[in-house]
Design brief:
Elements: H1 3-16, E1 25-30, E2 33-38, E3 45-49, H2 53-69, E4 74-79, H3 87-93, E5 97-98, E6 102-108, E7 123-127, H4 130-144, H5 149-161, E8 166-173, E9 176-185, E10 191-199, H6 208-222, E11 227-232, H7 237-242, E12 246-256
């Protein structure tokens, strides 16, 4: 795997040529910036940029003016290889708040252990309706300690409007949801994104996360995708490395709230 070429392919297909990630979103190109603007609870933010040091501060100010003019908070998704090299410092100086850094990891679809199965007593079920979405949201709240209303809204919208672009699963122990994850598919690209993998406390360390990665990898392979992409936390990175994923760069969300 040529890391430089793969990172360039990722930038081109998923950032510079980005598609909206939901039915209520649109992608705009404004000069050397590609951004998503959305209504409701969809994600708003800058996906890609290409400007030099001389133009950076003005470009940042333009994006702040654009989103605040719409009354929207937004995120600048900064990658470790983005330029100028001090872009993160410039974003902080402009009023953005950085969230925890993650690692962009890529795996070829055939590399993860596709035969990995959940532990005894746990089964993986597809999520296709509001009842299943509620189970995913429940896991998200318990695993991450965060509000999941946005996830419920987004997943319901995707399953209703674009069901072929999302695969969601929940791991059940009897009637209890213990882990959940989703995969977002980007038609016309070679990438399938793995998102939201979380396991509730008390069920971690049993191989459930690994099984959900394998389940989604099989689904991506069946649909003809070549690469799996993950923004990995420090907890999931070691698991993904053992499954054959390779770290390419870092990614840090910088959030601006009017």
């Amino acid at each position: 795997m040529d890391h430089t070429a793969l990172l360039a392919l990722f930038d081109r297909e998923l950032r510079e040529q980005a598609r909206p990630d939901g039915p209520g979103a649109r992608v705009e190109r404004a000069g050397e910036v590609v951004r998503q603007v959305a209504t409701g609870q969809e994600w708003n933010g800058v996906l890609w940029s290409a400007f030099d040091e001389a133009a950076a501060d003005a470009a940042i100010a333009e994006q702040i003016a654009h989103y605040t003019g719409l009354g929207l908070a937004f995120e600048w998704k900064l990658y470790g290889h983005d330029r100028p090299a001090d872009l993160g410092q410039r974003l902080r100086a402009a009023g953005f708040t950085p969230e925890p850094e993650e690692t962009l990891m890529i795996g070829e679809v055939g590399e993860p252990a596709l035969d990995a199965e959940p532990p005894q007593g746990v089964r993986v079920e597809p999520v296709t309706d509001p009842t299943g979405v509620d189970l995913v949201a429940d896991v998200h709240e318990k695993a991450f300690g965060a509000d999941s209303s946005w996830l419920r809204h987004q997943l319901l919208a995707r399953l209703s409007a674009d069901p072929d672009t999302v695969v969601a699963v929940v791991a059940m122990a009897g009637d209890e949801p213990v882990s959940a994850a989703r995969m977002e598919l980007v038609p016309g690209t070679r990438f399938a994104g793995l998102w939201g993998g979380g396991t509730v406390e008390g069920w971690r360390g049993r191989g459930i996360y690994r099984a959900l990665v394998a389940h989604r990898a099989r689904a991506a392979a069946a649909r003809g995708y070549r690469y799996l992409q993950v923004d990995a936390s420090s907890q999931s990175r070691p698991i993904l490395e053992r499954l054959g994923f390779t770290p390419l760069t870092t990614t840090t969300p910088y959030v601006y709230t009017p």
